[in-house]
Amino acid sequence: MEHLAEEVAEGTPIVVEGIKDLNTLAVLGVSGQVISAKSAGKSLFDLVSEIEDTGTREVILLLDFDRRGKEWTGRLKELLERKKITANTVFWRELLGLVGREVKDVEGLVSYMETLKSKISGNS
Q: Which of 9, 36, 84, 104 pairs with 22 at a CA distance of 20 to 30 A?
């Protein structure tokens, strides 16, 4: 999460699904420009327009890890790249690989990390 926090702090916007995900990032120490994909009933095209309006050339996609999140990530990446905006999915893919089927959404990361910490401290 540290590298993600650095990227966002340096000005790369991050796209999450909703307000709870935004709050989760704050708890995890990630702060900066966060764009909520699902607020106010936005379509993917509305979201791409909002991202274009920021003037950024790169955006980090951190949508949920469930089927719909995977679909949105793929479609959004494709739409952004048509607009010559790099859609960074490195963090999303790494997290998906780490959490597998144990976490289905970004908001579940905090409790997942707390569970891991308690397991580690319990084994010490």
A: 84
